[in-house]
Amino acid sequence: MTRTATTVWLDGHLLEDDQLHLHALTHAMHYGSSVFEGIRVYPTAQGPSIFRAREHADRLIAGAAAYGMTLGLDADALIAAIAATVRASGRSAAYVRPLAFFGGETVRLDPGKECPVHVMIGVLPFEGLVPGGEGTPLFRATISPYMKTPSRALPSTVKAGGHYTNSIRALADAHARGFDEAILRNDRGEIAEGSGENIFVVRDGVLITNDADADILPGITRASVIALAREAGITTRIRPLTTEDLAACEEAFFTGTAAEVVPIVGIDDRDLGGEGALTHRLRTTYTDVVRGRREAPGPWLTPV
Ligand SMILES: Cc1ncc(COP(=O)(O)O)c(C=O)c1O
Fold first, then answer.
1. Per-residue pLDDT at 137
2. Domain range 7-124, its CATH number among 1.10.10.1100, 1.10.760.10, 3.30.470.10, 2.30.30.240
3. I need a labelling partner for 166 at 20 to 30 A (CA). Which of 117, 144, 185, 294 fits?
4. Which residues contact 124 (CB under 8 A, 6 or more apart)?
5. Residues 126-172: tens digit of each pLDDT
C-alpha cells in the first residue's frame, strides 16, 4: 500500500513530516481508546472550506468526554487548529481526521488520571477514499450477519476507535461476498446503519430514516440531508427501519461525510434498478451545498 501524504498536527504543533512517534504501550493502540472525526474540506468560491466544522468539533468533544478525556481545547480552538492544518497542507479538497486518544505508557485498562490525552489532526487528500472518487458510486449492499453493537454495550453516538472493529468485520464480510457495503441490524433485528454511513429509504414517496435509538451514529450528513429534504418540502419521517422497509422501498441510499449521498442499487438479491429520482435530487442538492454552489440553510461552510 502506498503511503498517503498526510499533514499532521499533534498537541498544538505541526509535525515536520508524517512521522508520528508513539510509545509502544499507547493505550489507544492496544484498546481502541480514541475518538475521532471524519471531516471534508471542499473548494468553494470563498476558498477551501470545512463542511459543518462546528458539528464535528462538538461531536468529538462530546465523545471525548464520554471516554473521560480532557482535551484542553474547546470547539473554537479545535476548529482553528483544523483550519491551520488544512492551510499548512496547501490542499483545497481534503479529508480531515481529528483524533483524540489516550497515550502511553500503561498496559492497565484504566488509563488513570496520569495517562496523557493527545489530540492529533491529519489532513489527507480525499481521492481514493470512496470507490468512484468524485463520481457517483453506486453501492450494492448486503444485510450483515454481524449485529450492530448495542448502545448499552458501547454508545453508538460516540465515534470511538474501538467501536469500529464491529464495522471492520461487517465490511470485510460484505466485501468477501462481493458487495460494496454492509447493512447492520441492531439487537432487536431493526436496521441500524452501514459500516460507516447512515441509511435512508423512500417508501410510497416518503423519505424515512431511523434515529439514535436504533443504535446508529447520528451522522452530520444525515442531519444535513434531513434539513435539505424538509427545506425542499419532501415528506420526511424519522422512525425505526425494518428489513421489510428494505424489501418494499422504491429507493434507498447511504449518507456519510466521505461517501456523501450514495444510491443503494441492490440489497442482497433485490435489484433496486439504479439511482432513484428522489435520491438523485437530494444527492445533487447536497453535492451543491457542500461545494458552496447552492445556499445552505445555515452557516455550514467555514473558510480556512
Ligand atoms: C458508523 C457510522 N455511521 C454513520 C456515519 C455517518 O456520519 P457522518 O455523516 O457524520 O459522517 C459514519 C461516518 O462517520 C459512521 O462511521
1. 86
2. 3.30.470.10
3. 117
4. 4, 5, 6, 7, 94, 95, 96, 97
5. 886 666 555 678 999 999 999 999 999 999 999 999 999 999 999 99
Under the banding of pLDDT at 50, 70 and 90, the label for residue 218 is very high
Q: Whose CA is nearest to atom 7 of ligand 1?
A: 219
The answer to pTM > 0.70 is: yes
Best residue among 58, 221, 241, 253 to mutate for probing ligand 1, ranked by most atoms within 8 Å of CB = 221
Tracing cell 432487536 back to the chain, one arrives at: 188
* Straight-line distance from the first to the last Cα atom of the chain, in angstroms, rounded to the nearest whole number: 30
pLDDT at 16 over 90: no
Task: Read off the C-alpha cell for 118.
Answer: 493527545
Lining residues, ligand 1, CB within 6 Å: 38, 167, 193, 196-198, 217, 219-222, 255-257
Q: What residues does each domain of the chain span?
A: 7-124, 139-290
Residues 85/14, Cβ–Cβ less than 8 Å: yes
